Each structure stands twice: as C-alpha cells, then as structure tokens.
Amino acid sequence: MLTGRWAIGVDVGGTKIATALVSEGGELTARTAVPTPVAGGARAVLAAIEAQARHVAGQLATGTVLVGLGIGTGGVVDHSRGVVLSATDLLPGWAGLALADELGQRLGTRVYVDNDGNTLALGEHRFGAGRGLRDVIYATVGTGIGGGIVLGGRLRRGASHSAGELGHVPAPQAVCRRCSCGRTGHVEAAAAGPAMTDDYRRRSGDMTVCDLRVIAERAGEGDEVAAAVLAGGASTFGQALAGLVNVVDPEAVVVGGGVADIGQLFWAPMEEALRESTLPGPSRVQLKPALLGTAAPLVGAAMLA
Ligand code: BMX
Ligand code: CA
C-alpha cells in the first residue's frame, strides 16, 4: 500500500500522454500511457490528461497525501502561470492554453506546468545522469527534439521561456525541410523520428514504413539505406549539439528520448559529429544517455508540484 506524499506527473508529447504517481524520493508507480488524440485539438488533449489523472489518482490509498499534479508538455510554457505560450504542429491548438487553471479547476487540485525538455532536465538532474553536476545540457530526441539547460545547478528558462528549445537550432542539412514550428532548416526537421522516417521512405521507396524502430531493425540486418538515414540524422544532431557545447561549455550533455534509445546506430554517429566539431576544452564534455528513460519527464513534472 502507498504511504506518504505523492504527486501526479504527466508527460504530454506529440505521440503519447504518459502519467504516473511519483513519490518525494522519485519512485514511480501506476504508470499509464495513451496516444495523444490527433483530432479534436486542445479540448481532446485536455480531456485525455484529465481522464489519465483521475485514473492514476484512484490508485492512491487513504492516508496518502496528493500534493498536486505537474505536467511537462511540448511547447513554450510560462511555468509561473502554467500557460502554454506557443506550440508547434506537434500539438495543434495548444498555444494560448491556460493549462494549469483549466485542469486545476476540473480536477480540484493544484496544477503546475513546464516544457517537457525542462521536466526531463529536472528529473535527470535530481535523480539521473546529471546528479552532482552543475552545468549540463539535456536533450530529448523523439517525435520532436526538445531540451533543457542547467547552469550553476539551476534550470534556466530564458528571457521568453524558450531556453533549451534545441530542436530549432538551424542545421544546413535541413535547409529545404519544413520544421514542425513552420520555419525551415531546423535540426528537428532532420533528426527527429518522423524526419528520419520520411527520409527513409523517400530514399528506399518503401512507403509502408512508418516506425523508426523498423528502420533501426533493418539497419541492424544490413539495410544500408536504413543505416545511412540514421547516421545522417544523428550526425546532423551531433553537429547542432557541438555548437551548443562550444558556446555553453557544459560538464555533460545528457541525451534521452525514443530515438536516442535506438542505441549505437544513432549514438555513435552523433558522438563522432559532436567530438569532431567541438573546441579542445569543450570536446572533453561527457556524453551520457539519460538514466531514467521515459520516466525522466514524469519525475521532473511531479517535482514541479
Ligand atoms: C518541439 C516542441 C518542443 C518540444 C519538442 C519535443 C511543441 C509542441 N513542441 O520542438 O517544445 O520540447 O518538440 O517534443 O511546440 P516531443 O513531443 O518529442 O516530446
Ligand atoms: Ca526546454
């Protein structure tokens, strides 16, 4: 039976909404995940979060304390007000939503909101690969590319709440490709999951493939186009990271997300590109996989509460 103080952590991404109960010590239980509704806009996504939160809260026993609910979501978030300031096409209709107020009223509990890259950074910094470090760049490569920047042990949100929007670093390799934010030539348009899947479909002519894991499997079985696509995306991302590392000079870069989970087929070319383009001092930066995996944004979101 659960005892003590718990918070609900929610991770709202372009593909799925994940939810869990998180203890003060960072333990997770009652994890659920549902696909992010594709039709119905912000209302449908809100309803899905509400249903998951109610389900997860129902797992709490009497005598336990629910301190609140924290959400990490794609999009630029004013975390002090819990308002989504802007969002890319990965979450249509999400921009302008007073998420903390809307959901707090529906659930009757306190709700806190931040960007999903920021919640991943909070979780990994406290309980994962960034423990004990002061200056760290956190990145997540999945449906989109996001991130969070910790300097002097503190998450930096920037002058307009956009610090760590790593997916929107310009990349020459993506110059003709439209990014989810509507501009062209951003690293997310070359190295996120859907970008590499599109690339594979175009280069192989096999339009039946719509999952990057299939491409990774094929690369493992000797499909050269598949391997080249993963290496291309990974090295584009590694170069973008190198630019950030040269400027910020962090102790470590921590990379998580579904695409990074593919393993060496993505990791090796990413690391090679990063080391190749970094200055002598910053080239010694530690490159670490996220330790908490898909739990990191949930833990970080719960920490908001
Ligand atoms: C997009 C942007 C970022 C987000 C990143 C990763 C939106 C909706 N998303 O660049 O804010 O951090 O994707 O998102 O504006 P994920 O869905 O892959 O977790
Ligand atoms: Ca961020």
What small ligands are held by the chains?
2-acetamido-2-deoxy-6-O-phosphono-alpha-D-mannopyranose, calcium ion
Helicity, as a percent range: 25-40%
Biggest sheet record: 5 strands, mixed
Strand content: 15-25%
Number-wise, the strands total: 12
**So how many helices?**
9
Order of helices and strands: EEEHEEEHEHEEEHHHHEHEH
Shape estimate: globular
Q: What is the gyration radius calculated from CA atoms?
A: 19 Å
Order of strands in the sheet with the most strands? 3-2-1-4-7
Give the termini distance in whole angstroms.
22 Å
Q: Give the structural class.
A: alpha/beta
Are there runs of 5+ residues with pLDDT below 50, and where? Answer: none
**Average predicted confidence as pLDDT:** 95
Structural summary, described in words:
With 305 residues, the chain is an alpha/beta fold. Helix content is 36%, strand content 23%. The chain has a 5-stranded mixed beta sheet, sandwiched between helices. Strands 10-9-8-11-12 form a 5-stranded mixed beta sheet, sandwiched between helices. α1 crosses α2, α5 packs antiparallel against α7 and α6 packs across α7. The longest helix is centred in the C-terminal third of the chain and has 25 residues. It starts with a strand and ends with a helix. Bound molecules: 2-acetamido-2-deoxy-6-O-phosphono-alpha-D-mannopyranose and calcium ion.
